[in-house]
Amino acid sequence: MRLKIYVPLSVLIATLSFAQEKKKEKAKFNQELATSLGADQYGMKAYTIVMLTTGATKIEDKAKMGDLMKGHMTNIGKLADEGKIVVAGPFLEKNKENYRGMFIFNTKSKEEAEQWVKTDPAVQAGVFSYEIFPWYGSAALPLYLKHHDEISKGNP
Fold first, then answer.
1. How many of the other CB atoms lie within 10 Å of CB of 68?
2. Which UniProt keywords apply (predicted)?
3. Which residues contact 54 (CB under 8 A, 6 or more apart)?
4. How far apart are alpha carbons 99 and 96 in whole angstroms?
5. Where are the domains of the chain?
6. Quick one: CATH architecture of 34-151?
7. pLDDT tens, 102-127?
């Protein structure tokens, strides 16, 4: 009786192990893609993260605040279309640092990132302030943006 159970179980374990090994096979290196993305030998590159924080300006007028947020979102889209921003999004929980959201800019220059973040109407109005940090991540990060429109039905 035990043999009847162990044989199929052994076959199942062997099959799963083989499938797991196949999954671990490394993708073929693509030099053309790596070069086009600015990847180093590890497939990584320098970016700049901008952490948006709560600014000093408080706007009680909901219509004015709505216009600023619409401008904020439009500006994010423009920067993304220009290849300057590769990640943008709000934080879902309040935090002690008053971080509201973040951008990952496709530059290693803190000065360039600061120029780009200053184009944001909510930053200009003082609703958001910011902190800037150098960051090292996958050079393939910008590739996800081209698929985002395929998975979203609308804009926030």
1. 21
2. Signal
3. 98, 100, 128, 129
4. 8
5. 2-28, 34-151
6. 2-Layer Sandwich (3.30)
7. 999 999 999 999 999 999 999 999 99
